[in-house]
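Support case: user asked for a sample of complex input and structure output to validate their parser. Sending the pair below.
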Amino acid sequence: MGLNRKDLLGVKDLTVDEIRLILETAGPMKDIIGRQIKKVPTLRGKTVINLFYEPSTRTRTSFELAGKYMSADTINISTSTSSVVKGETLKDTAKTLEVMGADVVVIRHAAAGAPHILSKHLSAAVINAGDGFHEHPTQALLDMFTIKEKKGSISGLKVAIVGDILHSRVARSNIWGLTKMGAEVRVVGPSTLIPPEVEKLGVTTFTSLEEGLRDTDVIMVLRIQLERQQKGLFPTIREYARHYGVTAERVRLARPDALVMHPGPINRGVEIAPEVADGIQAVINEQVTNGVAVRMALLYLLAGGGNPHEAIS
Amino acid sequence: MKLLVKGGKIIDPANNFSKAADILVVGGKISAVGQNLCADGAEIIDAQGKLVCPGFIDMHVHLREPGLEAKETIASGTRAAARGGFTGVACMPNTKPVVDSQALVEFIKSRAAAQGVVNVYPIGAITKGSAGGELAEIGDMKLAGAVAVSDDGHPVTNSQVMRLAMEYTKMFDLPVISHCEDLDLVADGVMNEGYYSTVYGLKGISRAAEEVMVARDIMLAELTGARLHIAHISTAGSVELVRMAKKKGLKVSAEATPHHFALTDEVVGSYDTSTKVNPPLRGTDDVKAVKEGLRDGTIDVIATDHAPHAVEEKDVEYNYAPFGIVGLETAVGLAFRELVNPGILSIEELVRKMSCSPARILGLNKGHLGVGADADITLIDPDRQEIIDVNKFASKGKNSPFGGWKLTGLPVATIVGGRVVMRDRELVL
């Protein structure tokens, strides 16, 4: 069975059963990535368009590979080489893609809600690959897949999300997903980077990294954008690193088997110390691999239909 | 030319008159008010079951002309006003160029005389080009017919400039209308800051961004003794500040828009850019406070901040869309829905807020229906129902979040200077 929805716009709207289905489907997909010949015919004849209005390496490549491993035709459109520079609106771009016969459109956009506009004008499936500060659902799903793979279950785990929560779509999607799956979620960061009334999402807020990390099972480190400092949200990168950098010493405050995660790209020595990023508890590279698997699962569930086990056998 | 408005209930709070009577209009003026009036050869308006009110005045409208005619013109905006039951509108000066001189005030007056269908009252800029620096020629604009000054849309950042503006404007007995917004606090916010900005991932605009300016301008009004009118008040804190200012006896008045008492920030979740407005739609507590401010008299006026935009300008990502909601053609229905029908305002109080008070603040001899008054009359059918269809708007702007809303209590005739310009929800031109 597939997902009973046209689009994936956010984790907020997903049910627990839908999240489970996606994560379960990603398992067999991951096996494909490990094969000698990484190709199944599942999405042959389907077209996946990556429409990226923001620079991205891993998410775009991940979607592209996910489509290619499943024999879809994948096309990348980035704004610097498209009609956007000629002033075409998102609505008109959507209509153009529609009449060209896209089956799935993956969109990354700096403005929250851009995927919702696209979905209104497209009969194709729309997958949100990150919109403004709003959601980045595939990142949260691959994070949950990684946690589940490592820990067996998400329910009951203590997860600390550390850094710039205010501007983070990754944090929002993970908060929705992890709380739905029964985790206890903490957000940790300087008070200028904590969104208003975030506790209403069912999380606890910490401004002390030490307190926030204590006894956690998962440490999810967010990338700090250097431009936030220029906007005065914190005094210096140096002070940020000193107070909120995830160092080996601080990781020891978490449970001994705690996972260290990061959606990338990382600022070594700023939000995460190099020895932590490369350390034994880090699962940052596995997150990337799992990202391809989760995106294969989503492309399959939204565009493919049928039984995933049959499809890949 | 004679006109007889027959059989309606007259609501004339300025004359303390609320009962069934006929109104006879001769030569654009009210010549008689009384029972069973008859006049040979008069055009008759059957007002049976209708409320006959002094013409409504919207003191906060963007007609967009000159320079922004793709959004609205004086012709289209005044037609929207007529359809919405307004016999007069005060238009904001943030056009291209900004209305900051006698010549531009005169342009608007002459264009309105030629193409408008309701009365148009120009508002002049406070500073040249609304740039916040030197004062505009306020005295000249007053002579040309400006009824107020405002740098609406471009709040006067420099407190000294605002102080001087108030000192100077006081000489001409014009109100200074303040669009209260601290631009540094607003930064690039697009919606109310709070739970929903967190959920929707949009940059928030704090309530304080409005309130610090309301507080500043009230203090400057106290310092200078000027008449200050706070535009589109949207937060509980602002309502409280105005309440305190009035208690002190300052010459401070305030307006609220229908969208700020009819909607909360929750609706932004559709990413429908017709919900993007400045100040932003606020929370439930703010809506409650605005309604209470209207009820207890803290807020004197209901004004729409009618802000039309071209369809293509709004049909973009939420962050990129311009701020603004069109309001002229939904204001009365929304006021009935949110205020009159739930018993927050009596019909007399509604008429004060939509006719008498704007007339008083702008110094217009309007807002009353006594013998000799200008025959500006709004007829309302309190039972009339309609499902709002933005494509039926006379305004060029379709940027309304109220499309599809069923409203009860609507204007059914608009009479300007004795001339019927709207009848039975249709323009008569």
